[in-house]
Amino acid sequence: MAAPTQTAPRPGRTLAILLAVIVALGVWTFWPGQSHTPKLGLDLEGGTQVILTPVSSTGAAITDDQLNQTVEIIRQRVDGFGVAEADVATQGSGSNATILVSIPGVTNQAVLDALSTTAKLDFRPVLLEDYGPLQATASPTPSASGSASTSASAKPSATATASASSTASASSTASSTASSTASGNGAAVTGGLRPNAGTASPTPSASASASTSASPGISATPRPAQTTNAAGITSQGGLPPIQSSKNDAALQAEFTKLDCAKTGALIGGPVDPQKYLVTCSKDGAYKYLLDKAAVQGTEISSASAGLATGGAGWQVNLSFTSTGAQQFADVTLALSKNTTPQNQFGIVLDGLVESSPYVKEQILGGNAEITGSFTADEAKALANVLNYGSLPVSLQVSSVEQVSPTLGSDQLHAGLIAGALGLLLVVIYLLIYYRALGLVAFASLLVAAFITYEVFVILGRQLGLALSLAGVAGAIVAIGITADSFVVYFERIRDEIREGRSLRAAGDAGWIRARRTILAADFVSFLAAIVLYFLSVGNVRGFAFTLGLTTIVDVVVAFLFTRPLVSLLMRTKFFQSGSHWTGISPDRLGVKAEIVPVAVGHAKES
Amino acid sequence: MSGARTLAHRLYSGEVSYDFVGKRRRWYAISGVILLLALVGLFGRGLNLGIEFKGGSAFTIPNTTASVEQVRASVEKAGVQDPIVTQVGRSTITVQTPALTPDQSVQVTKQIETDTGVKQGDIAVQLVGPSWGSEVTKRAAQGLVVFLILVVIFLSAYFEWRLAVAAVVALIHDLVITIGIYALSGFEVTPATVIGVLTILGFSLYDTVVVFDKVRENTRAITSGNRATYSEAANLALNQTLVRSINTSIVALLPVTAILVIGVGLLGAGTLKDLALALFIGTAAGTYSSIFIATPVACQLEERRPEMKALAARVAARRAGGDGRGKSAKKSAGGATTATAVLDAVAADEAAADDVTPDTLKAPGVTSTGPRQQPRGNQARSKRKKK
């Protein structure tokens, strides 16, 4: 019989390899200066989890780009509140997607309200522009950000907040290369808007005048914290977006007062297109006083990033609906006659200025390019913003779950106690039933638990994977699944001994058969975990992930630990003695010692 | 303990054999009644859906000494009528209300905090929009369908389609029973319950795969002999894996029980309890179905194959003809027949499995009864005769 040589010729070496892996993971896990415990989910740590379902305003399918842009807007809002470690993630894609916002700690209501409002995009002529943070040295710079030509003025390097948000600075960094005179802090937001080569013939649109005023008036739900003062100025505790129906001294005073470096200044929020707007650029580097909306984002028919027609780098191509084209022609005509900064318009998304390109001349025909030496990514980011504006995604709050830190730690304790109890019960059962082999199972479970712990710590640190209560439950349930593999193996060994094999032969032959069963059964479990993971929402994911992970750990432990260990033990005198404490003594299994003729049994007829 | 081992051994050798497959009508009838009850419960009473499915708001007040009445009073003071207030566990009170606006929920929270002296921020709040539940259900249903398709594909490749179908029948059986028990008992269905039910998928199949693996082993070369029918060989596999099935189920149920006990005892309600309860019911049903449903259904499907019909005919003919072994078998009851036949099947399989390339050995392996099996077979039979 060839069985003993078929598998695990060197059990000691296999064990050594596993030990090396565990130690390596252990070093990584317990490296000084890092967290040595898994990252905890909100239901264990306390915090708020909000699940938002994006709904397209027109009923059209939501594209992934739009989804990403929506997430970007939410992230901006959450970050704007200064919430540490908030996490915004999407699950699923397209129309099926949900957005999961996790905010640790105790959350204030304003954050929750800010999450669900629909972000809109519009184009507004710039009336005033200045640096975002209040200048200690009242810098007389008129408007450095206007066009490349005016940016010769040296910028105080104190405005280094420009790079606060990496995505927001997409267009600003682009323009810093455009305006070669600008100093290195890359704050100037420019972009030449030139007529498209092919748009020489103005598109006559008879219906334009009729529908011009049709689109505005969609008033977003006001944020509860929004206040209106005596001068008719609405704001959120003095923070942008600050709006008024009159562009008067009071509003200009608000503009002067505005400090974009203040916490909460960059939250954004819905704005009324019929009112003047005082707000910050998305990165907080600049602040603006903007006119009423000239063109609404919904009038954009498409936007795309493309290689610049006339020069280096990338540009954004933009086209409008017929209504939008007319409105855009009107506003560009007006702007082109102005000087900096009034020749710019702000592209306002969710109450914050994404970009403020200047206009050289009237743009007819509804096609435009925004240039400014963008990189591909920057152009794509701006195009995404514009596309999002054409079809705003509204968000439904599907679920809000607030867990207090006290309840969280209670749940964690309950989970840990349940885990300990579960492990204890399983080990007791295995020891009673399998005796010495039960010890092997116990050791295997400990190894599996240790590897799982290490992986959780590492994944929590590297990928931000958080362990939720459902995940803890999954890990406890996995104790059973893992132990099942050992039961299958041990029962197979017993089968082989009943067949009359020697201990060593039974350990090996039993493994060959058990291995197949374990792999098949674990594969099915793993399949369930994968399907659960990809087709589920919220907490189910944590559970599915744990289940999938522990299934893999189960296979690893069964193959690299249990199997070689049993192989080694079968050679020991103790197991060979056939003691009742081995759990596999032949006479206990009903095999009489005298009818275990190993040599004969191995003789094969064929 | 030794009694159990002896029993385990006798189950393995076929000395003791419960005719699971032959009495399938009985199991089908039992399952039929349970399934009927489950369906009646499901469509008659319906499920007690948690607020995640109906939409609504829930407040959990941990570590409180306040009474249910006190909490109800303060919720009503906050302007919310008819809240459902329940005491769960030792010191936790939950409040369920219809869907509230965030403002209302803040009012309720504050009112409870002032009235009961609970520390600020300790109250857990859950607000669920009405569409969320249908979304969760839709995803769960999608997941279920995708999983079933994948499982049929995998099991068809690993075993064959008849066994895959039988496994899935058993799986659906478990799911329906679990859902039915939820309907009949009125346990609340939460997303955690859905997770639990979906996890049953993997659990239920684990057992079935273990049993089917042995069934396949016992029936691998069965058609080239005339010793046992497919059903008899499968029944032996069931008996041989009985101890294993029971052990894996107990081992799987122990941690689930721990979660259930701790979840209810320490937290009163919530994710842990919901998850563990669904798993507990599902795993128990899964153990039952892998023995009493999956294998009998698989046998029925297999016995319809022409070659299995032919085999059954050959076996019957051999037993009627009465060669040496058949005679002794004929004297005893049906169970003994199975045992004898089965030992041969095992021997055949063993011969196949011993070799590195089993296929080449199939033909000789089937007819050979190794020297080592022979005495044991005789011994087993002689024991029976003594009785």
Overall radius of gyration of chain B: 28 Å
The beta-strand count of chain B equals 6
Largest sheet of chain A: 9 strands, antiparallel
Whole-number mean pLDDT of chain B: 76
Query: Over all CA atoms, what is the radius of gyration of chain A?
Result: 33 Å
| Count of all domains of chain A | 3
Helix content estimate of chain A: 40-55%
With strands numbered from the N-terminus, the spatial order across the biggest sheet of chain B is 3-4-2-5
How many strands of chain A? Answer: 18
Mean of all residue-level pLDDT scores of chain A? 73
Level of helix content of chain B? over 70%
Task: Assign the structural class of chain B, choosing from mainly alpha, mainly beta, alpha/beta, alpha+beta, or little secondary structure.
Answer: alpha+beta
Characterize the largest beta sheet of chain B: strand count, sense, and whether it forms a barrel. Answer: 4 strands, antiparallel
List low-confidence stretches of chain A.
1-8, 137-224, 593-606
Q: How many helix segments of chain B?
A: 16
Q: Give the class-level CATH name of the largest domain in chain B.
A: Mainly Alpha
Question: Approximately what portion of the residues of chain A adopt beta-strand conformation?
Answer: 15-25%
State the helix count of chain A. Answer: 17
